[in-house]
Structures are given as C-alpha cells and as structure tokens.
Amino acid sequence: MSHDAVPATETVHRDWAEIDRLPTVELLRLMNTEDRGVPTAVAGELERIAAVVDAVAARMARGGRLVYAGAGTAGRLGVLDAAECPPTFGTDPALVVGLIAGGRPAVTAAAEGAEDRTDLAEADVSALRLGPADTLVGVSASGRTPYALAAVRTARGAGALTVGLACNRNSALAAAAELGIEVEVGPEVLAGSTRLKAGTAQKLVLNLLSTAVMVRLGRTYGNLMVDLRATNDKLRDRARRIVAEATGADEEAVERALTTTDGRVKDAILTLLADVDAPTAAHLLKASDGRLRDALRHART
After folding, report:
1. Is the pLDDT of residue 52 over 70?
2. Which active-site residues does the annotation give?
C-alpha cells in the first residue's frame, strides 16, 4: 500500500517517534495538547451534524429507529451511546441500537478479525428489518472499515437513511452514505491507535447526535431529563430534584406528585404546573406525543 493511500489517522508522526523516552509528564502534556484539537475539529462539522440531527429526529418522530454500526472502538462507542438512551431519555431499548462487529462478546473482548466480515454486517442489519423511517450511522475512524461500509450499504438498500461518521476526509464511508460527517483529527500520538483522538471525536459526535435528537423529540424540558427512568436511589433523588426545579414545589408536594404518577417525572411536573390529576396528565402527554411543553399549553387552553 502506498503512503498516500494510508488514512491520516493511521499515519506515523515522525516528531513523536521517541515518546517512550519522554518524562511521564511531558508524554501526558503532548497527549493532552493533541486532545485539545478534537473539539475544534468537531466544531467544523456542526452544520453537517445538525443536518443529520434534523433528519434523524424527523424519522424517529414517525416511529423510526436510530442504529449505530461499527467495529472495535467505533462499535463500542455506538453500543455505549445506545445503552445510555433508555435511562437518560426513557426510550425503549429497541429505539436506539448499537451493532458491533463480532456481536456482544466484542464489546468487552477484542474481535479484530470481525471488522473484515461484510457478511456479518449484512446479517446484523438485515435482522433489524430497517425501513424508510429508520437511520443507520456507520462509524469508522478510517472511514473504510468493511463492516461499517457493508452495514451502510445494506441499510441504504433497505431504504433507511444512512450516515457515515469518519475521522478522515474523502472517506469511502461518507461516500457510501447519504449524509457524511468527517471529523479530521490527524495522526494519533500512538500511531494508528484510533481509540485516542479519533475515539474522542466519535464520542463527542455521538453525544451531540443522540442528545440533540432527543431534545428535538421533546424528551427533555429545557435542560432537564424529564424522561429519565428512576431505577435506583441516585436516580430517584435526581427525579425529585428535576420535579422541584421545573415546578418550584416544596419537597412534600414533589413527593406526592411522584407517588401519584408512579414516579413518572413528566407526569408529576404536569400535575403540579397544570393543577391536574395523574390520569389527566397522562392523557395530555399522550395527546401531545410526550412533549411536556405542548401538554402544558393544551392544559391551559
């Protein structure tokens, strides 16, 4: 392979050839300095990310799903983002899905050979039975991982919206997808270790994507996580704080509202702000597609 064919994320930066001889603090300073450029690189793609958010949100509002597909670090980051949506936004686990080359075992153990298996990607995506309301985001630092490419092509063939997220310009992944996000982070301090800057960039983009989509879908109220699932003591305490912040109600009123609504934060807020009972709050929210601001407006008219 010629040097020109090597993605920037895989190239060797000659100035860093002797990092093993640096004092520890200097090694860390070098890595930290390089990391600082990642948010700037992501900022350069905000317009493209915004286009993806709006397209995904429009489809999910019609009942569509968001699917991530990648191998290695990229796949794990997609699985992580998908796993965090149910507790944060109260989504059904089937709504945001992470596919990783090699399946569940690859989340905690390396399965490097799986990234070349296009047949695995085709099978994984086909099993989801994607359609026009769904979106698949292929994630790959190099932008040419066979598993991610095959996942995008299979999803596009099924009529789903496809997005390619890469960390190199002019990537095959972005070209294969309808929408592309290419965050150019350059060579890694440890040559080719794309769990570093490229991994950080991918995590930042996925944070932006899923969070902004959920905001657009009304799964927040301002900057409050009103759809969170209070499944432990920490989250139950957070639920109380969210209701208190949104309503200004005292501790006793908050506790009573959460009790009458079986711990559903949105419903509790609505009972307090609109002065309605729990069944009415549930009805208003259902009629408003779960959007608390719309439910409040309907309750007051």
Report:
1. yes
2. 84, 115
